[in-house]
Amino acid sequence: MANLFNVDNVHETLKLPFPASTKQAAGIVSGVLTDVMSVSFCDKILVIISQKGRLSHWLQVPLENTNPGTTGFHTFSSEANDDSLLPLTGLTATTLLGGHAPGHDTLGQLYARQIASAIIMKTPHEKRVLVVGLGLSICEPDKDVFATVIDLVLRCI
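^ that's the sequence the OP posted. Answer follows.
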């Protein structure tokens, strides 16, 4: 007869680490509470930016450098350029869901590429895919809003 399962040990807590590290930050952006969360899975990095609990645009950015002659890593010159704060030119953001309202797709791609650039600057050997969930209540290009949102994201990555 097969061994019976011992239900006496079911209530014991397993002391295993959670498989995905999670970080959160919150702040006020243009008078609206903005929540940012980052979850690092083994194959993807998920960054969620939400205002008023909404998520309306999902994008992905592959972080692996697929240029010929590279080993998959990104390299940077040591010279300081005026465009060093711009997103890296080799990154491509692709909309997965949403983003079809006027201006949402372009602004969403800018946020996704900027977040991807920040991750690569921090860890040039990163090869996972970045998935960004964006849910801003007002989606207008504003320098101060953009800087504040990216600052919240930088606290999480």
